[in-house]
C-alpha cells in the first residue's frame, strides 16, 4: 500500500484542505502516518485537464520550425498535409514529445482524432497508441479513427476505419458529411454502421455552418436515437449551433439534450462561440479541445489546455467570476463527461489525477496560467 | 562613451548578426574592443514592444485578487469603478508594479489613457507620471487625459482635461461621443478645441458600431482636416470599421488614410477584428494595445503584448507566416508609428531598445511567447 498526503491545497480554488491518496485513489481520511507528503503551499488543486479534441498524429512538436505551406482552402490544407506529413518524422516520436508537454501542464486525458486513409493506412493509429502506451499511468489517450481525407471520396477508408477499431481505436469519426464528403446520408449511414458493428461510439467533425449544418445535426440525432447509442455520440466544433437564429438554436439544443449528444469546441478564431450557458442549462455535455498543435494546419498551440480555457472565456465575452470558472470546469469535468472517464474528480474514490497551480483564484488560474505546476497521476508525482 | 556588442542575434527572425551600441544608440560597426558583450545565442531581436492602448491607472496588478463586481452594462462598469477604485491602493504603486512587468516582458513604450473626472481630479494622471518618472530610461509612458466618466455629462471634466495637459499629459481623449456622451458634435468640438488650445493630439475611444460609429469617424476626419492636425489623431477600437458593409468600410478607410488618422486595436473578444490587410494597403497606421490589465473592468491581461499579438493573429484567422508576422510588426513598429516614437527600430541611429526572444522564427515568437527574454533599454540590460 502506498500513501500520499497532499497538504494545504484549495480544490477548485475553495478553502484549504489536505487530500489523501492510497494506492492511487483519493480516500476521505489519512490512513498512514508514513504517507509521502506533497506540500501544496496553498495552491489550487484541479483534477487533470482533459483535452477532448486533439489531433496528436499531426503535430510537429519537438521538430524544427517549418513555415506554413498550405493555401487557405480546406482542400489545400488537406492536400498539403498529404504531401508533406511524411517529412515530419515518426508519429510515435512527435506524439510522445507532445504528450510529455501535456503531462508537464497537467493535461492527463486526451481524445485524439487520428487520420486513417489508404495512403497512410493504420500507421498513425498504431503510432499514437504506441506513444500513449509508453506513458501509461501518466496520461490516457482515446483514439478516434478519423477520415481526414474523405470517407466516400477516398475508396477503402471505411474498411480501414473498421480495422482501426480492431487495432485499438475506441471511436469512429466523421467529417462534414455534406460540406466536405458530399453525400451526407451515405456518410452518416456508413459511420453509424461501422460503429454499430464494432459496438463503439462516434465523434463527428461538423464545420458546416448555418442551415446546412443544422440539418445534419438533426440527421445525427435521428440516427443516435434509432440505433440506441444515446450518450455515445459527440459532435466536434458544431459551428452550425452558433450560426443559426435563436429559435432554431433552441430546437437543436433540445435535440442534442434528448439524444445526449456531447459537443466539443476548440475555440474558433473567426466563428461565434458555442452558446455555453444555454447548453449548460439544457444539460448538454461540452468539452474543450486544443485541436492541432503546431502542425501542417496551423502554427498555433502550446499543449496547455488552460490557454484554450482563457481563449474560450475571452471569446465568449465573459467578465464574471462564475462565467470564467465555467471555462475551467469545461476544461476538466466537462471533457471528462464527454469522454466518459470513470472515477474522475477530486472526491474519495476518484483516481488521484490532479495538478496544483499557484494562483489566488480559479479565475486567476485561467487568466494567468502559471506554468510551474505540480502534476500527480495515479497518486504519483510526475512533474 | 559606453559600448555594447550584442552578438549572434537574428533581427526580426532573419539572418544572425551582431548589433553594436554606443551611448545607448545603435551604430553600424563595432567601435571599441572593450565593449560589454551580451551573448545573443541565436535569439530573435525585436525593437521594444509598444503598448499603444493601455489603462495603467486602472490596474490592480500586484494587489490581492478580488472578484469581478460590476454588472454587464457599460454604465455599471463605470459606476462600479467609481465606487471601488479607491479600494485598490495608490495609483503610483499599482502602475509601478505593472510597468515593472512590462519591462520584464520587453514592453518599453506605453500610451495610457488615464481617467480624469471631478471625483478623482488629476490624481491618477500625476500618479501615472510619477511611476513612469521612476522608471525613466527603461520605459516611456505617454498619457492621454481620458473622460472615462463622461465629458459633457460630468461637469468640470473638460477643464480638468486641459489642466491634465499642463500637468504633463500629452494627448486629449474622448469616449463614444454619441453612444456614451450623448451629443457627438458638442463632444467632438470640445475635445478638438482643447487639443487646439494646447497644441496636442487626440486619441478617441470609439466603440459605437455600425452606421452610428461610421458617421462619427467621418466627423472626426472632418475636424482633423479642418484643424490641421493630420497625423496627430488616433481612434481607439473603432469597431464601426468592421461592422459596416465592405463599400462603406472602403470609403471610411480612404478618409482615415487622407487625414492620416491612426487606429489602435485591443483585440475584442466578441467583435470582428479590424481589416488589417486593407488598412495596411491604404497606409493607415495601426497599433496594438493591451487595454486594461486585471482591473475593475475585467480580470484579463498579463502585461505581455505578445499575448495580444497571438490573440490578434488567431482572431484574424491567420495561418500564413507573413500574416502572423504582421501582428508582431503591429506590436512593435505599428505602435511606434501611432505614438510617433523617434529613433525607433534596430537600425543605426535608433535608440537601443530591444528584446531577445528564444524562438526559431518570428511566427514561433508569437505562437509560443517564451518569457525568458533579455531586455535592453537605451543600451543597458534591464532584464
From TrEMBL, chains A, B:
The organism's superkingdom is given as Bacteria
The record's section on Pfam families has: Amidohydro_3
What SUPFAM superfamilies does the record tag this protein with?
Answer: Composite domain of metallo-dependent hydrolases, Metallo-dependent hydrolases
Q: What region holds the Amidohydrolase domain?
A: 41-381
> What InterPro entries does this protein's entry cite?
Amidohydro_3, Metal-dep_hydrolase_composite, Metal_Hydrolase, Metallo-hydrolase_Enzymes
The record's section on PANTHER family has:
BLL3847 PROTEIN (PTHR32027:SF9), CYTOSINE DEAMINASE (PTHR32027)
Q: Report the protein name in the record.
A: Amidohydrolase
Species, as recorded:
Hamadaea flava
Amino acid at each position: 500500500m502506498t500513501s500520499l498526503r497532499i497538504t494545504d491545497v484549495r480544490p477548485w480554488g475553495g478553502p484549504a484542505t489536505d487530500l489523501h491518496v492510497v494506492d492511487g485513489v483519493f480516500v476521505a481520511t489519512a490512513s498512514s502516518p508514513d504517507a509521502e507528503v506533497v506540500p501544496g503551499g496553498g495552491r489550487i488543486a484541479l483534477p487533470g485537464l482533459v483535452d477532448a479534441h486533439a489531433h496528436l498524429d499531426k503535430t510537429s512538436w519537438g521538430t524544427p520550425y517549418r513555415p506554413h505551406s498550405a493555401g487557405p482552402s480546406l482542400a489545400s490544407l488537406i492536400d498539403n498535409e498529404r504531401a508533406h506529413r511524411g517529412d515530419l518524422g515518426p508519429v510515435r516520436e512527435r506524439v510522445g514529445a507532445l504528450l510529455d508537454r501535456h503531462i508537464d501542464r497537467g493535461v492527463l486525458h486526451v481524445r485524439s482524432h487520428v487520420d486513417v486513409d489508404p495512403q497512410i493506412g493504420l500507421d498513425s493509429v498504431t503510432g499514437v497508441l504506441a506513444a500513449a502506451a509508453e506513458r501509461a499511468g501518466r496520461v490516457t489517450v482515446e483514439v478516434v479513427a478519423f477520415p481526414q481525407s474523405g470517407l466516400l471520396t477516398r475508396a477503402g477508408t471505411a474498411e480501414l476505419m473498421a480495422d482501426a477499431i480492431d487495432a485499438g481505436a475506441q471511436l469512429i469519426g466523421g467529417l462534414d458529411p455534406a460540406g466536405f464528403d458530399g453525400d451526407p446520408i451515405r456518410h452518416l449511414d456508413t459511420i453509424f454502421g461501422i460503429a454499430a458493428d464494432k459496438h463503439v461510439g462516434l465523434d463527428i467533425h461538423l464545420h458546416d455552418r448555418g442551415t446546412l449544418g443544422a440539418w445534419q445535426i438533426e440527421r445525427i440525432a435521428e440516427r443516435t436515437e434509432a440505433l440506441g447509442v444515446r450518450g455515445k455520440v459527440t459532435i466536434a466544433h458544431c459551428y452550425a449551433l452558433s450560426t443559426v437564429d435563436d429559435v432554431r438554436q433552441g430546437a437543436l439544443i433540445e435535440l442534442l439534450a434528448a439524444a445526449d449528444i456531447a459537443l466539443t469546441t476548440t475555440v474558433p478564431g473567426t466563428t461565434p462561440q458555442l452558446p455555453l450557458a444555454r447548453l449548460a442549462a439544457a444539460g448538454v455535455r461540452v468539452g474543450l479541445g486544443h485541436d492541432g498543435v503546431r502542425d501542417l494546419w496551423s502554427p498555433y498551440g502550446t499543449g496547455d489546455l488552460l490557454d484554450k480555457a482563457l481563449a474560450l472565456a475571452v471569446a465568449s465575452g465573459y467578465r464574471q467570476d462564475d462565467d470564467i470558472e465555467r471555462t475551467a470546469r469545461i476544461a476538466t469535468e466537462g471533457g471528462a463527461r464527454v469522454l466518459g472517464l470513470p472515477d474522475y474528480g477530486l472526491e474519495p474514490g476518484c483516481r488521484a489525477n490532479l495538478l496544483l497551480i499557484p494562483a489566488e483564484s480559479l479565475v486567476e488560474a485561467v487568466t494567468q496560467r502559471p506554468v510551474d505546476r505540480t502534476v500527480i497521476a495515479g497518486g504519483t508525482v510526475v512533474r
